[in-house]
């Protein structure tokens, strides 16, 4: 797949975790490996967004991260770069930078340090869209930061720019019903991504989303669910979605910090990251008991992914167990039946 700007963006696009060296510099080698693994696992593209710790990076760090990601994704899939900022001017400049380095789309949240009315919110997004030719994904991240975006703002933006230029990622709770309201208010024209980490993926898929933006940590499970949803394999859908839902519930309890901490832990478990270094300040740490439950659920998810596939060949499961030998005490403890 090419990251051309005239292609409609769709499918599974994981939000990348940003790997850091012990002295908290972006690690380009580990980042490249994460992106390689994402595409090898079936991702349709990659995303830089809130869970990538962009709000803790300075402007130069955000631009460096965006450039590394777009370079690595070029010719292999979509690249979406989050450009939301506290000023419209900075958001426009970040969006223009994303377009210049070959991003497939920009994505933006509203400013988080000020509560804008509907008119100001619409003008903020419109100004970004007017200054780029690639699509803009309007992200309501109010389940983590900021305030919900009024439905009228989203409808007005779609009318002004059209469905090929404006996409949506609604995350305000309740997610499912808000997604349906946007779909119905736009007569099904709105192209909508969900970003629940996977906990609401099945419900949102049935409401007509065009794609999902999960974490990289559970990507193989999300791709497997997406494929099962596409073919209507109900047993496999729920075999996979139940452990993912339980994992994401643990991430949600600590908000954005919960996602980042647990995702980085699982990326270390996968052998993709060398450490779980995050940028300060942080307000939550992964405690040993939560980590143990995360590990148990992750083992169950991996078993669900690799123990059943159409060919009946179980080599994938054997390969996965060998690659993680020494890490999975739960196998011998009989946790996975």
SSE diagram, text form:
Elements: E1 11-12, H1 28-40, E2 45-48, H2 59-73, E3 78-82, H3 88-100, E4 105-108, H4 118-130, E5 136-140, H5 151-161, E6 166-170, H6 175-185, E7 193-194, H7 201-205, E8 211-212, H8 219-231, H9 234-252, H10 255-269, H11 288-306, H12 315-323, H13 329-332
Parallel strand pairs: 1-8, 2-3, 3-4, 4-5, 5-6, 7-8
Give a nutshell description of this structure:
The chain is α/β, with parallel strands linked by helices. The protein is built from 13 helices and eight strands.
- Using the coordinates shown, work out and report the CATH topology of the domain at 11-233: TIM Barrel
Oligomer: single chain
The share of residues in helices is 40-55%
CATH architecture label of the domain at 11-233: Alpha-Beta Barrel
The averaged pLDDT comes out at: 91
Describe this structure in words.
- The chain has 337 residues and is of the alpha/beta class.
- It has a domain at 11-233: Aldolase class I (TIM Barrel, Alpha-Beta Barrel).
- 47% of the residues lie in helices and 9% in strands.
- The chain is built from 13 helices and eight strands.
- It has a five-stranded parallel β-sheet. Strands 1-8-7 form a three-stranded parallel β-sheet.
- Strand 5, helix 5 (151-161) and strand 6 form a beta-alpha-beta unit.
- Helix 4 runs parallel beside helix 5, helix 8 (219-231) runs antiparallel to helix 9 and helix 9 packs antiparallel against helix 11 (288-306).
- The longest helix has 19 residues, at 234-252.
- The relative contact order is 0.11.
- The model is unreliable at 1-5 and 310-337 (pLDDT under 50).
